UniProtKB/TrEMBL annotation, chains A, B:
Gene3D superfamilies: 1.20.1050.10, Glutaredoxin. One of its GO terms (biological process) is glutathione metabolic process. Keywords: Oxidoreductase. One of its GO terms (molecular function) is glutathione transferase activity. This is Uncharacterized protein. It comes from the Eukaryota. Coiled coil: none annotated. One of its GO terms (cellular component) is cytoplasm.
Length: 239, 239
C-alpha cells in the first residue's frame, strides 16, 4: 500500500466511524511505538501521515506543536508516545502489555526511561556529524550494555517474559534503526550484536517475527536511505 | 525540626523498618512532588536529605545519576518524580489521586506534561540572567494562561475536583516558588494572580490550606533566599 504524507495546502481526510484517528509519520520512532501497541491490540485505526517538514495548516490548528504521534479519542486530542501507549493499554486491556504489580510497572517504566540514552546516542551518531564518528559509535555501543544486562537479568526471551510487553515495543523502533548503521556507513560501522550483545541479538530475531512488529517493519536499507535524505535536507517520507 | 543534608564523607543512615526510605532535597520541586503524595497517603517514610552540590559517595554508588527524588521499595531503587507519584498512588490506593477513567488519566497527565513550560520559563527567569529580565518575566506570565484556562474549563476548585489530585500536587511546587519572585526582585516583579489568573489565585489559597501541602510549605521569603544563595554559587540546603 502506498503511503502518502499530507503537507501544506492539504485538507484533513474525513474521520472513519468506529476507527481511531491516528496521526503518524512513517519513519518516526515515537509514532512507531504507538503503532506497535495498536497492532498488538488489534485496534481498528485510521492513519493520517503528516509531512513533518511541510506541516499541514489544519494539523497545526488542532495541534500547534505539530508533532506526531497523536490520537483522537472521544473527540479529545491526545499526544506523547509513552502516555498514548499507557492509555491504549488501559483502555483496551487485551492483551495486557503491562505487569499487574505497581512495582514491576515502575521498574519497566524506568527501563524505558533509561533507554532514552540509546536514542540520544543514536541521534548524535546519525545526525550531528557529516560522517559517522568513531567516538560517537563507541558511545552508542556502550549505551546498549545496561539494556543487554537488564534482559540477561530478567532471564526471559522478551522484556515482557514469554511475550513482548510495553518495554519491548517502546524500545523496538530504535533497534530496527540500529541495523541501518551498516548500510548507512557502507559497512564501516556495524553494532556487534552477536559478539557483545548475544541476548539482544536473539531478542531482535524474535521481535522481527512478532506479528505487531513484522507488519510495520522497514528494512535497514530503507531506513538508511531515509537518514541519508534527511541529512541532505531533503527528507523523503512517502513509500 | 532541623533539616540536615548529607554530603561527601557521610555515611548512609540505617533504614527504619516499616518505613519507606526517601531520598530528597528540601528545596527541590521534583522531590516535593513525591513528598506531597507521601503526605496525602499518610505513608510512613524516612527521609534522607542529599546535598546536591556535594553528593555523598555512598549515594552516587547506589545511584550514579545522583539525583533526587528516589525511593527504596522492596529493596528496589526507584526514581523519577512522575513515575514515583504514579507508583505510590497505585501501591497505596487510598485516597486515590488519579481518575479511574483511562481517558481522564491521560488528559490529566497531558496537563502535567504541558506544565513543563512553566517550569522551564521559571528556571530561565531565576537562574539564567544576572537580574530578572522583563521579557523572561512576560514569558513566564504567558505560560500560566493555559493552566488558568484549564482550571476554568474544569469548573472545579481543584484540578482533581473537590479535592487535590496528582495534577494539583505535581504542579504545586512551582506555584509555591512563583511567589518568591516578589521578594527575590525586591518587589519589582509580581505575578498578577488576582488580576490575570483569578481562578489560580483562589486555587493557590485552597492548596496552601491543604494538609499535605501545608505541612511541607516554605515561605516565599525563604525560597527567595535559597535562590539568591544558589545563584551566588553558595547553595544553602539546611533549614
Amino acid at each position: 500500500m502506498a503511503i502518502k504524507h499530507l503537507s501544506k495546502d492539504s485538507v484533513e481526510p474525513p474521520k472513519v466511524p468506529g476507527s481511531l484517528r491516528f496521526y503518524s509519520m512513517r519513519f518516526c520512532p515515537y509514532a512507531q511505538r504507538v503503532q506497535l501497541v495498536l497492532n498488538a491490540k488489534g485496534m481498528p485505526h485510521d492513519t493520517v501521515f503528516i509531512n513533518l517538514s511541510e506541516k499541514p495548516e489544519w494539523y497545526l490548528k488542532i495541534f500547534p506543536a505539530g508533532k506526531v504521534p497523536a490520537l483522537i479519542y472521544d473527540d479529545k486530542f491526545l499526544s506523547e508516545s509513552l502516555l498514548l501507549a499507557d492509555f491504549l493499554d488501559k483502555q483496551y486491556p487485551e492483551p495486557p502489555l503491562q505487569p499487574s504489580s505497581p512495582l514491576q510497572t515502575i521498574l519497566d517504566k524506568l527501563v524505558i526511561e533509561s533507554f532514552g540514552k540509546v536514542g540520544t546516542a543514536f541521534y548524535k551518531l546519525m545526525m550531528t556529524t557529516k560522517e559517522i564518528e568513531k567516538n560517537n559509535f563507541d558511545e552508542l555501543v556502550a549505551s546498549l550494555i545496561p539494556i543487554e544486562t537488564e534482559l540477561v537479568e530478567r532471564g526471559t526471551k522478551f522484556f515482557g517474559g514469554n511475550k513482548p510487553n510495553l518495554v519491548d515495543y517502546m524500545i523496538w523502533p530504535w533497534f530496527e534503526r540500529l541495523d541501518a548503521i551498516n548500510p548507512y556507513s557502507n559497512g564501516t560501522f556495524v553494532i556487534p550484536f552477536e559478539d557483545k550483545f548475544p541476548k539482544l541479538a536473539e531478542w531482535k530475531s524474535l521481535m522481527i517475527a512478532d506479528k505487531a512488529v513484522a507488519s510495520y517493519y522497514i528494512t535497514p536499507e530503507k531506513h538508511a536511505e531515509h537518514f541519508t535524505k534527511k541529512k541532505a535536507g531533503l527528507p523523503a517520507y512517502d513509500i
